[in-house]
């Protein structure tokens, strides 16, 4: 039976996911077979497993860090927010139902708890270590009775809990003491250590506060982790508010890339590789005034294509996109918007008319990992589909990608300036992204960048290793192993 550790937080976005990712890699480096687990995740970024199931992106990333295949048991419930307090529920990797928040809490949670526990037990039987991640805070009084993501999971897994707080947002001592004060005796007894995250400054200036905190709570501070800007995918579009978009002074970057920040934007990690391209600035756009004349415009995927297409028209962005962008890439449902028409069961909507295609929206979503090649350049690519439409290419359409199964995917305009595909993570094929940027450089009379490229897989692995080394340096792993009643093994043998 696996040993467990659980990371909970004083609030959302304190860094729980990244610390879990680091622990997954640390335990894996120490020779243990590790699985992440989050019973209930709420996120608009998802991860498609090898067998075509959908889980939260954070658990997929954590599985990669642990060097194991992601499976549905790692995140049995994924909530994908829509609007009016409703969410699409992904249960055991498949779309289950749409439900409002009250109905979910009152009728769904207890019904599925046996299956959630079954997922946890499966991981315990097949792995050495389970790294559990909480959600939000365990001290939300109005939610505790139906909370299945925090202390209830800690009790089921018999896991010691590490409480993480974000010092960057201020009030760190109050949030820690307040959180602990709102836990009942059994819950508080599970909290074995405190971690202060995202620290900037001299730790010596914090020492008096740490001494007081340990005396006040009786719980040891296991680490103060300095802020680290590490290129690991964010879990949700909420993180766009703090994303390191390269919105620098005008003229600082040779290539200007803009993406439309749709009201129902999903899978925004499709743009991540652009943040790491040298000489490329990336900015989010919500108005015509912000759009300007970018060298490349990304129309990303939307969870509500009908609403967001109308929003583009109402804001004037639809017309501006057609008139101003030099090169346009549509991804996921953004690809559908570039076409002539989008049809649902009862309605017909006019697209942006930039590609000769029509899309019929379907009730069932196709989810799978895919491979293929770009037809014009023969470049090999991999990605994943979350396809909710059946696309028909009209006369004059040029297919963009040929998949390994022989089917075509996507379309490209005759002049090559507009292209689209249902494949997410197209730009994570770094050689494709570099070629596209060099094509823009050529048009602008700029020198090419020809430095050797690493694959996206190599870059992700380096990021996991960097994060693990950083966290291990500042976290008392000896104590964590002691709480888990396990032997600490060092990666160096």
UniProtKB/TrEMBL annotation:
Taking every annotated instance into account, which residue ranges of this chain make up the domain CobB/CobQ-like glutamine amidotransferase? 256-431
Question: Is Nucleotide-binding one of the keywords UniProt gives this record?
Answer: no
Question: Could you tell me the superkingdom of the organism this chain comes from?
Answer: Bacteria
What SUPFAM superfamilies does the annotation carry?
A: Class I glutamine amidotransferase-like, P-loop containing nucleoside triphosphate hydrolases
Keywords associated with the record: Cobalamin biosynthesis, Glutamine amidotransferase
Domain CobQ/CobB/MinD/ParA nucleotide binding: from-to ranges: 5-229
The metabolic or biological pathway listed in the UniProt record of this protein is: Cofactor biosynthesis; adenosylcobalamin biosynthesis
Which residues constitute the catalytic centre?
424
What's its job? Catalyzes amidations at positions B, D, E, and G on adenosylcobyrinic A,C-diamide. NH(2) groups are provided by glutamine, and one molecule of ATP is hydrogenolyzed for each amidation.
PANTHER family according to UniProt: COBYRIC ACID SYNTHASE, DETHIOBIOTIN SYNTHETASE
The family this protein is said to belong to: Belongs to the CobB/CobQ family. CobQ subfamily.
Q: What is this protein called?
A: Cobyric acid synthase
Species of the source: Lysinibacillus louembei
